[in-house]
Design a protein that fits this description.
The complex is a heterodimer of chains A (187) and B (468). Helices cover 53% and strands 14% of the residues of chain A. Chain A has 7 helices and 4 strands. Chain B is built from 11 helices and 14 strands. Classes of the chains: A alpha+beta (187), B alpha+beta (468).
Chain lengths: 187, 468
C-alpha cells in the first residue's frame, strides 16, 4: 500500500489516542519505519502489522480498529488535500460510489503502483443499494463499512451498512447492503 | 475517412470539450461564453466585447479579433480581472462564418485555488489534465512535507543520538576517571599498608631489642657504680700502704715482705692507677647512661603507649627523634633545638608524629651529607612553638635545598630525588599523609638550592576536621 494509508493509520492513532500511543504501536509492530512518505509504496504487511499492534495495545478487536480507521480515512484524505477530488465525485452517495472506480483509475495515473479495489453498485433503489467490493487484499470488510459510514458523514447522509456476503470459499468478493436517506438527512 | 467538413461541433459539444471557451466575431462581439468561464467571470455574460474584461498578457495586446487572429498557432495567456489575476491558457481556432473560437482552461498551481475561485473539478473538461496534474502536484507537495517531516525526524534522531553518544562518552570518561582514581587509591593504600607493616615490624623489633638491652644495662650500671665506690675504698686502703712500707723499712722489720710489696706497687704503677681508675669507671658509667638513654628513647619512639590520639609532649618527641636519628646526622651535622617552654600537649598519634619527625630529620641529615664534603659540617635546627590553636615544628637544614623542578612533586608517592637504593619515595608522602589527612595539619617548606630547606609542620592542638 502507498504510504498515504500508513500515514492515515498514524494520524488515526495519534488523533484518537495521542502521539505516545502511536509510538508504542509503531514499536509493538516491529516495523523499522519512523515516518512514511505518502507517495511511496510500502509492503502491505506493514499496514497489517500496525493494525495488529494497535489492536493488541489498545485492547480493541482489529475489526473495530479497521472500521474506525475507515471512517477516519475520509477525514484524512480531505486533510491531505484530496477534498476537491472527493467533492467532484458526486453530491449523492450512489453517485459517489459509482464514481469510485473512475476516481481510482485517475489516481493510478498519479500512483502507478496502486492496486485499488474494484467497486460496483447493483440493486440500486431510492434508498438502498448493494455494493460489491472486489479486492486482492483480505480482511478489509470492516474497513469498507467504516469508509461508507464516513462517507455518509461527509455527505451528511444517514445510512446503515451491513455485510451481506463475505469473501470466502466460493465467494470472490464482499457484498454490502447500504440503506441511506436523502442528502442532508444526517446532521 | 470522414472529412473535417463533415464533423459538426455545436455549442453544447464545444462547451463539453472546452467549458472555458468563448467565441468572438470580426466585429469583436462576444458571441458565446463557456459555462465554466461564465462561472469564473459572470460579467462576461452581459459583456458585448471580450476586450472590456479580459487582457491578453501574451502575446501582449488587446483582446480583439484582430490581435487574436494574429496569435493563431501561439499559446495565448489571458489575464482575468479576478482578485488574484487568474490566467487562462488558450489558443484560437477559426470558427464558422469567420468567427474565432478561444479554447483553453485556467491555470492553477494548487488544488485549493479551484474552490477559492468558485469552481469544482466538475467544471473542467473530463479529459482535462490540469486536475490530475494538480493531484500530482498535491501529492508531491505532500511528499515534500513528508520528506521535511522525515528530515526533521532524522535530525531529531541524530540529535538524540549525538546526545546519547555524548552522555555515554561522558559516563565512560567518568567511569574511567573513577577507575583510575580507584586504582590510584588502591595503589596508595597498598603502599601505605606495606609501609605501615614494615614500620610496625621495625618498631616491634626495636622495642624488643631495647627491652632485651635494658636489663643487662641496668645491672652493668649498678655494678659499675659499685665498682666505683669500692675503688674509692680500695684506693684509701692502698694510700695507707706507702707510709706503712716506709715505717717497716725504718724499723728494719719484715724487710722481705715490705720489699716484695714495694716491688709489686712499683710494677702496678699505683699513682697512675690511682689517677686513671676512677676516670675509667666514671667514663663507663657515662657510656652506659648514654646507652640507657638511647634504649629508652628507642623504646618510647618505636612503641609509644597505645595507639590513637592522645595529648602528647612534642618537645619530648623531638628529643627522642634526635636521639634515635643521631647516627644519621652525627658525622655530618650538629643538632640545635629551640624548644618553646610550656608547649601545650598536642592531641596526636605519637607513633605517627615520631615517624614524621624521624623522616624529616633523616632527610635533613641526607641533604647535609650531600654537601658536607664541599661545605663542611652542617646544622640541623629544630624549633617548636605555639601559634594560637596550633603547634608548629620547624626542621631546618643547611643541606642541598630542593631543586625547583622537584618541588611540586616532593609529597607524591614514589617520587624521590635520592639515588636508587637510598630513597623509596615513600617518606615525604607518608609525612604529608600523616600530617594532613590523619591530623588535619599542614606541612610546608621553604628551600633555597645550595642553602638548605626548612620544613614546617603545623598541628592543631585539638584536631578537628575543619582544622585542615
Amino acid at each position: 500500500m502507498y504510504g498515504l494509508v500508513n500515514k492515515a493509520v498514524q494520524g488515526f492513532v495519534t488523533s484518537q489516542f495521542g502521539a505516545e500511543a502511536w509510538e508504542a504501536v509503531r514499536r509493538e509492530s516491529g516495523i523499522s519505519e519512523v515516518a512514511f512518505v505518502g507517495m511511496n509504496p510500502y509492503p502491505d504487511e506493514i499496514t497489517y502489522q500496525l493494525v495488529a499492534a494497535g489492536s493488541k495495545l489498545l485492547n480493541v478487536p482489529a475489526e473495530q480498529i479497521l472500521e474506525a480507521f475507515g471512517r477516519y480515512w475520509m477525514v484524512f484524505t480531505a486533510q491531505e488535500g484530496y477534498g476537491p477530488m472527493l467533492a467532484m465525485m458526486g453530491d449523492t452517495l450512489p453517485t459517489f460510489l459509482r464514481n469510485l472506480n473512475p476516481m481510482h483509475e485517475r489516481l493510478r495515473l498519479t500512483f502507478p503502483k496502486l492496486k485499488p479495489p474494484h467497486i460496483t453498485v447493483t440493486e440500486e433503489t431510492a434508498d438502498s443499494l448493494r455494493l460489491h467490493y472486489h479486492s486482492q487484499r483480505a480482511g478489509l470488510a470492516p474497513f469498507v463499512i467504516g469508509l461508507l459510514k464516513g462517507l455518509g458523514e461527509l455527505k451528511k447522509t444517514r445510512l446503515t451498512v451491513a455485510l451481506d456476503r463475505a469473501k470466502g470459499p466460493g465467494v470472490d468478493h464482499d457484498e454490502f447492503i447500504v440503506h441511506f436517506g436523502a442528502p442532508g438527512s444526517a446532521p | 475517412m470522414i472529412r473535417s467538413a463533415d464533423i459538426g461541433l455545436d455549442a453544447a459539444g464545444l462547451a463539453a470539450v472546452s467549458p472555458f471557451h468563448c467565441v468572438i466575431d470580426a466585429q469583436d462581439r462576444l458571441l458565446q461564453v463557456g459555462r465554466s468561464l461564465a462561472k469564473l467571470l459572470p460579467e462576461l455574460q452581459e459583456a458585448t466585447s471580450l476586450g472590456d474584461l479580459i487582457h491578453i498578457r501574451s502575446p501582449a495586446g488587446p483582446a480583439t479579433y484582430a490581435h487574436l487572429t494574429g496569435c493563431t498557432g501561439q499559446l495565448i495567456i489571458l489575464e482575468l480581472p479576478t482578485q488574484d489575476g487568474l490566467n487562462i491558457r488558450a489558443q484560437t481556432i477559426p470558427g464558422a462564418n469567420g468567427t474565432l473560437i478561444l479554447v483553453g482552461s485556467p491555470w492553477f498551481t494548487e488544488m485549493s485555488h479551484i474552490g477559492a475561485c468558485g469552481l469544482s473539478l466538475a467544471d473542467f473538461a473530463r479529459h482535462e489534465s490540469v486536475t490530475d496534474l494538480l493531484l500530482l502536484v498535491q501529492s508531491q507537495s505532500a511528499s515534500l512535507i513528508d520528506a521535511t517531516t522525515l528530515a526533521d525526524a532524522l535530525s531529531a534522531l541524530n540529535h538524540q543520538l549525538e546526545g546519547r553518544v555524548q552522555q555515554r562518552t561522558q559516563a565512560l570518561q567518568e567511569k574511567t576517571a573513577a577507575l583510575q582514581q580507584e586504582m590510584s587509591d588502591r595503589q596508595r593504600l597498598e603502599a601505605e599498608l606495606r609501609l605501615a607493616q614494615k614500620l610496625e615490624s621495625v618498631g616491634q623489633l626495636a622495642a624488643g631489642i631495647a627491652h632485651e638491652i635494658n636489663t643487662p644495662i641496668q645491672f652493668i650500671g649498678n655494678n659499675l657504680r659499685f665498682l666505683g665506690d669500692a675503688l674509692k675504698d680500695l684506693m684509701t686502703v692502698v694510700g695507707q700502704v706507702t707510709p706503712l712500707l716506709a715505717a717497716t723499712k725504718a724499723a728494719g722489720c719484715a724487710v722481705v715482705e715490705s720489699t716484695a710489696m714495694r716491688i709489686a706497687a712499683d710494677k702496678a704503677d699505683l699513682p697512675y692507677l690511682e689517677g686513671e681508675l676512677p676516670k675509667a669507671v666514671e667514663q663507663s658509667l657515662e657510656g652506659i647512661e648514654r646507652v640507657a638513654t638511647l634504649v629508652r628513647a628507642l623504646k618510647e619512639f618505636s612503641h609509644p603507649d597505645g595507639g590513637g590520639h592522645k595529648p602528647s609532649d612534642l618537645n619530648h618527641a623531638v628529643e627522642n627523634a634526635l636521639i634515635v636519628s643521631r647516627n644519621e646526622y652525627r658525622y655530618v651535622a650538629d643538632a640545635m633545638v629551640h624548644a618553646e617552654a610550656g608547649l601545650p600537649p598536642v592531641s596526636c598519634n605519637l607513633g605517627e608524629i615520631n615517624q614524621v619527625l624521624l623522616n624529616l630529620l633523616v632527610n635533613a641529615a641526607h641533604a647535609i651529607a650531600d654537601v658536607e664534603k664541599t661545605k663542611g659540617r652542617g646544622t640541623i635546627t629544630i624549633s617548636t612553638k605555639r601559634d594560637g590553636d596550633w603547634v608548629e615544628i620547624a626542621i631546618a637544614d643547611t643541606g642541598t635545598g630542593i631543586p625547583e623542578h622537584a618541588r611540586p612533586n616532593i609529597f607524591d608517592l614514589f617520587f624521590t630525588t635520592k639515588p636508587v637504593g637510598k630513597g623509596t619515595g615513600q617518606g615525604l608522602y607518608l609525612v604529608h599523609s600523616i600530617v594532613t589527612k590523619k591530623h588535619h595539619g599542614t606541612i610546608t617548606f621553604t628551600t633555597t638550592v645550595g642553602s638548605g630547606t626548612t620544613f614546617t609542620v603545623r598541628l592543631p592542638i585539638t584536631p578537628t576536621p575543619l582544622a585542615s
